[in-house]
Amino acid sequence: MLTLILISLAKVVAILLVIILPLATLLTWVERKQSAVMQDRLGANRADILGLRVWGLFNIIADGIKSFSKEDWVPPFANRFLFNIAPFVGLFAAMVTFAVIPFGPPIHIAGQEIALQVADLNVGFLYILAFGSMGVYSVVLAGWSSNNKYAQLGAMRGISQMISYEVVLGLALVGVVLVHGSVRLPDIVAGQGEHWFGWIPKWGVFTQPLAFLLFLPAAIAETKRVPFDIPEGESEIIGYNLEYSGAKFALFLLGEFIEIVVLSALLATLFFGGWQVPWLADSGFVFGNGATVEMAPLVVTVLRIASFLLKVVFFCWLQLLIRWTLPRFRFDHLLRLGWREMLPLALLNVVVTAFVMLS
Amino acid sequence: MDIKTLLELMFGLLTVASAIWVAFTPKLLHAGFSLLFTFFGVAGLYVMLGADFLAAVQVLVYIGGILVLLLFGILLTTAMPTAELTVGGTRRGQGLALGMLLLGLLLLAVFRAGWPLSMNALPETTASDIGKGFMTTWLLPFEVASILLLGAMLGALHLARRAGEDQ
Amino acid sequence: MQSMQGMQFAFGVVLMFMVMGLLIGIVALTLSSFIRPHNPTEQKLQIYECGEEPVGSPWMQFNNRFYTVALVFILFDVEVVFLFPWAVIFNDFIKQGLGAFIFAEMAVFVGILALGLVYAWAKGDLEWVRTRRFMKPAAARKGGVA
Description:
The complex is a heterotrimer.
Chain A (H helix, E strand, L loop, with lengths): L1 H37 L20 H10 L11 H17 L10 E3 L2 E3 L9 H10 L1 H12 L2 H32 L4 H7 L3 E2 L3 E2 L2 H4 L1 H15 L22 H26 L8 E2 L2 E3 L5 E3 L2 H27 L7 H28 L1
Antiparallel strand pairs in A: 1-2, 3-4, 5-6, 6-7
Chain B lengths: L2 H22 L3 H21 L3 H25 L12 H25 L12 H10 L3 H28 L1
Helix pairs in contact in B: 1-2, 2-3
Chain C lengths: L3 H32 L29 H31 L3 H24 L14 H6 L4
Helix pairs in contact in C: 2-3
């Protein structure tokens, strides 16, 4: 029992301190650099240590020190308690989703099977949806407690947008559950390890293409980033977090980047086979024409974890690409897209999937 | 006392304490946020009882849905968020009577349930059992639930539209 | 594959994860409280509206379309919750030859709820700029944006 608890604790710490936080902080730099490249600029490159610049990587440290040494200013007209807990709620909701994502196959150490997943919940899917929906509270709390017109307006738009797209998100997931017949994430990943004709992997993106196309924009809408950044809209209403400064604002920002990482992990897990590598079985590569390449179990495991991380990094990059390519939606367009275009399509996807399975 | 009892007590305490706060705070919005903890505590109790599906649904529907709607309603109404609720004498009496009636109903249900102990092993995945139940034994209530939901939504939409056109 | 203890243990780990996640934020803020200045001035303490003097209360009247959206949301949120257990067992029922049966059952359920969507759609509750007819023509062209 004690070893189990210790192993779990180790996994929790590892996920938080090795995957989520480093990736999220690195993304702050990647975002600046990538946008600069896309706009033909140089981007962050000033911070140096002893003349060493390494493409501006030290800017991450500089940003961290700067935001944490700024005055933490709580407006006197704000509701102090709610104002203070809002950024935590955002960070919490973003981070907690990662607990059910399997980032590798079960490994065996000293005769004990260890799942590379923080918590193997039987209701993993619902858990993701449930805690995804808690992100709304950070917006409500921040907007309401700030006692500022623009913050209020941002909060209103934020809630509307997030709940609208949550429905699409849930319905897209129903399609995935239909295909695999389970709400447990390891089952979903295991199901994606099979192949059609020995060649085409049964990844979610091939079994549920429409669900993927609906899930991606809906999930980006949940992260409240361009083109769905209407709650923040930095050039118009600034948004629900405009009275925040210093470390608390940094927490909001960190929460946003963690959401990117978590969303990438979700996309990889649900639609791109999770830790599966195409044609890689437990014993090594098995191709459709019968050719095999034998491999040691350790190499297979390492390859699989690497494939998961690679997919996560790819989707982080894709999200930043989308963010710097598209303009902002107008609010009525946003609601129309969500309710009148994506929702009927999502319902149709469920019905068609069920019908195809039936016949 | 083992850790399980401790957790159970913790969740129970969280539920009851926040529910009392909901009932007695004069600030409407504080009551709303306090309800969040009540729902969360109930979800924790579901986990302690082995109902993981129900716990997730509790968080998804009550915290992520119904409470958002409630808070939305409060925030949308001008001057409501900062309003202090003052409850007069007769209203207090009515509330007490209604509360007692509800308590009586609940107690009746609790004592009539009989609480049979199942000798069967607990189901491994509650989700599929619930699904089977919906599709076979409880089909009629399941379909009626959709009509109930539809009716509630139509009524609420109608009221919301009326209120909107009055402005 | 899991017993009830296993399930509860998994949730316990999730609880642990939540506590750790919160701790990270708390530690960060506490560390920053040692180095950050505290110097409130009169200008800083004003409501931030780009240097303008704030007019009126932040509690303004919002478009009540926000509320109707939330109402429709609840309906579909609950629908999704009902769909999940159905989706889990669908494959098993097909294998037992009862696929068409439960497909029809769910079609009725979804159909009834889809009526709600059709109603809201037809009545214009899902259109943001429905307020048009209460406005003057000039304002209507710009659209009623909240």
